[in-house]
């Protein structure tokens, strides 16, 4: 198992890519700390991880709440004495055309998708520096590279995540901490649950593979980047889009 004995925090772990990532890490031997807004979805993911034999603990919190984040990180360190890997996956959408987007829609996405990444990473870094090693994996998006109609807030946040990743790569690399980002394309997650079937079909047609991605396919990339097999990958942004942007 590639991650045997590692302690990992996964945010947004209650469903979609986060839940798939937590389960993948559990299957690879990691001890998993799962975070999400709702306790019920956290509990469901914990149960799935424990069913494959992993240690798993959960925290219901908003990554935009720094005090809650600090408490969660302290709890993980108190219980497991270290943090080896962080997967910054938590994210929301509040879509609207630019001229109709409200300040609340813009701010809420920036607070979770960008400031939340900053909050959790800054909270775990002291432990990683003390250990002399660590891996931070940030969830970006192809929208953060190429933009997307109706997603000014989301594109800004995900582009910002890439900026954080590149900067932290330079600052934290000398301390033994690798930082990379994953930029998924169209992935079949609960975030797309309100999208009509006809629209999903058109989205699939835009992808050279002619299908949406699966959460497990993104989780596999996170697991590789977290492992020693990726020990010389630092500051990278890995697209998982089925060729959408070609």
**How large is the count of helical segments?**
8
Q: Calculate the terminal CA-CA distance, rounded to whole Å.
A: 34 Å
Domain count, please report it: 1
Q: Over the alpha carbons, how many angstroms does the gyration radius reach?
A: 17 Å
How would you sum up this structure, described in words?
The chain is an alpha/beta fold. It has one domain (7-239): NAD(P)-binding Rossmann-like Domain (Rossmann fold, 3-Layer(aba) Sandwich), CATH 3.40.50.720. It contains 8 helices and 7 strands; from the N terminus they run E-H-E-H-E-H-E-H-E-H-H-E-H-H-E. The chain has helices at 16-27, 39-51, 66-80, 103-131, 143-146, 152-172, 197-206, 215-226, and strands spanning 7-11, 31-36, 56-60, 85-88, 134-139, 177-184, 237-240. It has a 7-stranded parallel sheet with strand order 3-2-1-4-5-6-7, sandwiched between helices. The chain is globular and about 50 Å long. The two termini are 34 Å apart. The mean pLDDT is 96.
């Amino acid at each position: 198992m590639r991650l045997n004995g590692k302690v990992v925090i996964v945010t947004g772990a209650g469903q979609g890519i986060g839940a798939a990532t937590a389960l993948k890490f559990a299957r690879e031997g990691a001890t998993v700390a799962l975070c999400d807004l709702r306790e019920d979805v956290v509990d469901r993911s914990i149960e799935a991880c424990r069913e494959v034999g992993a240690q798993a603990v959960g925290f219901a919190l908003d990554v935009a709440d720094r005090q809650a984040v600090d408490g969660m990180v302290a709890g993980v360190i108190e219980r497991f004495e270290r943090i080896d890997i962080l997967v910054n996956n938590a994210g929301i959408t509040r879509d609207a055309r630019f001229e109709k987007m409200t300040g609340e829609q813009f701010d809420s996405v920036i607070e979770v998708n960008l400031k939340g990444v900053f909050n959790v990473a800054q909270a775990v870094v002291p432990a990683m520096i003390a250990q002399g090693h660590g891996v931070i994996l940030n969830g970006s998006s192809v929208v953060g590279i190429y933009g997307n109609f109706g997603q000014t807030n989301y594109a800004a946040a995900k582009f910002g995540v890439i900026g954080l990743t590149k900067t932290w790569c330079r600052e934290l690399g000398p301390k033994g901490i690798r930082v990379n980002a994953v930029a998924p394309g169209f992935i079949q997650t609960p975030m797309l649950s309100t999208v009509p079937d006809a629209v999903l079909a058109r989205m699939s047609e835009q992808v050279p593979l002619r299908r949406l991605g699966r959460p497990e396919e993104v989780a596999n990339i996170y697991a590789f980047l977290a492992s020693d097999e990726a020990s010389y990958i630092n500051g990278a942004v890995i697209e998982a889009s089925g060729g959408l942007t070609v």
